[in-house]
Amino acid sequence: MIKFLALYVTDIIRWIYWGPVRILIRITPKGLSYRLIMLVGVCAYFIRRGKKEQLRAWMEQVSGGPVSRAQLIDVFVQYYSNSLDTLLYCKLSSENIDRFVHYEGLGNLKQALRADKGVILLHPHFGNEEYLMPAIGHKGFTVSQIASRWEPDYTPGPFFALSNRIRRHAWRMRIGTREKLPVGFVYIDKGIRDIYRLLKRNEVLLLALDGREGGSWQEVPFLGMTAKISPGPIKIAQSTGALLLPTVIVRTGRYHHTVHIGEPVRISKQSDKSGETVRADTIAVLQAVEPYIKKNPSQYAKFILLDVKLFKEEQADL
């Protein structure tokens, strides 16, 4: 009975979020919406205080110094602010994107495209990484995002029929919101052939360097710890000749962001059997984004907050 009620409550909350709440947010003044979401983040911090000390230890190791309560609260505020951003994507356009996003290194992207090999913007789950989609797409680039589109779980049994319908409807609204952005999507659950096609057409590919899909993880140094990183992005760059640009997006205000696009990382033309060339190239990309994470650890800790086992040193219950 408890499982039955919990499942229905969770699915109804999902539907409310992607239905009525999404509509309400769109008609609420932006400044007020982000002030309210800060309160939600503060409340979440006190509700989920069991993670406090683990997050503090992780952030102190990354930043190399003490972490205040405000910084810990900011982890939760960042998480919910990102969710609010998603509901307001529909208000972004090529005419107003510069009001919300400042660009540094956009010339690096334009220069890389002149090589006519395709470009991979390799980014961590830092800041609101999803905001890179409208930020790059609304600047007129032909861009695609690597993503997964796993359908929601199905719970068998007649008592869960309505719950399944509500869950699937909420999922469709979430996917629909994302797919209205000025980007294409390459869903890896359908294969990766399209990745090579779009790079051959000299398009831009957004790819997470710390994604949890794939396999054959490599253990590499990252943020003073040992991270498990997929060699996939480096191998794609090697096999296609695409230029790989380290990219981060930093939240600089309630609803303002700065996109930093680095210069191309020199990638080995081919990998050796030992995998050392791929490992060295992976480390080079990680070193390019590390300074941003160390300066703003709360904007990366929200990724760790979601029970992502990225680092070998993470405790099982983090």
Quick gist of this model?
The chain is of the alpha/beta class and 318 residues long.
Q: How many strands in all?
A: 9
Kindly report the average pLDDT value: 85
Head-to-tail CA distance between termini: 29 Å
Q: Could you give a short account of the major beta sheet?
A: 7 strands, mixed
Order of helices and strands: HHHHHEHEHEHEHEEEHEEHH
Please explain how this structure is put together:
The longest helix is centred in the first third of the chain and has 26 residues. The relative contact order is 0.17. The chain has 318 residues and is an alpha/beta fold. The protein is built from 12 helices and 9 strands.
Characteristics:
318 residues, alpha/beta, seven-stranded mixed sheet
Q: How are the elements arranged and paired?
A:
Blueprint lengths: L1 H26 L2 H18 L4 H12 L5 H19 L9 H4 E4 L1 H8 L5 E5 L8 H6 L5 E5 L13 H19 L4 E4 L5 H8 L3 E5 L9 E5 L2 E5 L2 H9 L2 E9 L5 E5 L14 H20 L2 H8 L13
Parallel strand pairs: 1-9, 2-5, 2-8, 3-4, 3-5
Antiparallel strand pairs: 6-7, 8-9
